Amino acid sequence: MTRVAVLYGGISAEREVSLNSGTKVVAALREAGFDVNPIEVGDDLGAVIAALTPKPDAVFNALHGRFGEDGAIQGVLDLLGIPYTHSGVRASAVAMDKAAAKALFIAAGLPVAAGRTVGIDELEASDPLPLPYVVKPVNEGSSVGVEIIKAGDNRRAEVARAWKFGREALVEEYIPGRELTVAVMGDRALAVTEILADAGVFYDYESKYADRGSRHIIPAAIHPDIYAQALDVAVAAHRALGCRGATRCDFRYDDTAGEPGRLVLLEINTQPGLTPTSLLPEQAAHLGISFPSLCAWMVENAACRV
């Protein structure tokens, strides 16, 4: 029987999400017939390494956020020689750095929002882009810290003074319209989901994880050309960063002037959530792939030093 260690928890702002994901993964892998060792990760790396001794056959990485999906734990597992799920060090680190990932998307000819990285002092002093625009941390996931600055709300300086995500932020044009997402397994895009955020004006942290925080429409009822483009761009983004396993790309689709409209790639997530409200399991189920089968596929495709 394959021995799988599941890493979950962590020390990022997404710890609770990871704990939820990890609990579901442990149950699914046991249902799929694996010998599972759950390892709740805290700030003691030595304890994590000790829990991985003797070495399991594979690690299921259910960590989210910094130190879980930014290449840090991936580097540790590479050094230990333990195969793990999801992307390797380089792809994980680049995907977590939104500015670096965006540069690679541009180089690959993918459609992205106009914007740039700015210092927080610059943001406090004046608007770096025409209103409305979006301010987001360079190195966070799950929409943590994302703010929309609209005409007349006078929040720019307040947002800058309260910023707790480093001395820089990524500022991008606000794309009106609809929220779409596409999951990729290996080299296959699964489906396009439209997300209707009930908890706010965009798919923020609350919409992602709160009960009834959002509604998902799968397959998305959009123009067929845009649907096909979203599938293609998701696979291209996965390849551009050298990702492996499962990823999920988030898009804005501006159809405010009618269809077909403008599709814009926002970011790629190398550790998609695996909670009851998560999008990757939902898209897999749409194609007949059960949650235990999805988790088993990830283990079977685990690798290291990639």
Please outline what is shown here.
The protein has eleven helices and twelve strands.
Description:
This protein is of the alpha+beta class. The chain folds into three domains: 3-86, Rossmann fold; 95-112 and 176-298, D-amino Acid Aminotransferase, Chain A, domain 1 (2-Layer Sandwich), CATH 3.30.470.20; 115-173, ATP-grasp fold, A domain (Dna Ligase, domain 1, 2-Layer Sandwich), CATH 3.30.1490. It has helices spanning 15-31, 45-51, 72-80, 89-96, 98-107, 120-125, 156-161, 205-209, 224-240, 279-286, 291-300; strands at 3-9, 35-41, 58-61, 115-119, 133-136, 147-149, 168-173, 178-185, 188-197, 214-217, 246-254, 262-269. It has a five-stranded antiparallel β-sheet with strand order 10-9-8-11-12. The chain has a four-stranded antiparallel β-sheet with strand order 4-7-5-6. Strands 2-1-3 form a three-stranded parallel β-sheet, sandwiched between helices. The chain is globular, with a radius of gyration of 19 Å.
List SSEs in N-to-C order.
EHEHEHHHEHEEHEEEHEHEEHH
- Full CATH superfamily name of the largest domain: ATP-grasp fold, B domain
The major sheet is characterized as: 5 strands, antiparallel
From the alpha carbons, calculate the radius of gyration and give it in angstroms. 19 Å
Shape: globular
Contiguous uncertain segments of 5+ residues: none
The portion of residues forming beta strands comes to 15-25%
Enumerate how many helices there are, as a single number: 11
The fold-level CATH name of the largest domain is D-amino Acid Aminotransferase, Chain A, domain 1
In what order do the strands lie side by side in the largest sheet?
A: 10-9-8-11-12
CATH class bucket of the largest domain: Alpha Beta
Number of extended strands: 12
Number of domains: 3
CATH architecture of the largest domain: 2-Layer Sandwich
| Helix fraction by DSSP (H/I, runs of at least 4) | 25-40%
Instruction: Compute the average pLDDT.
Output: 92
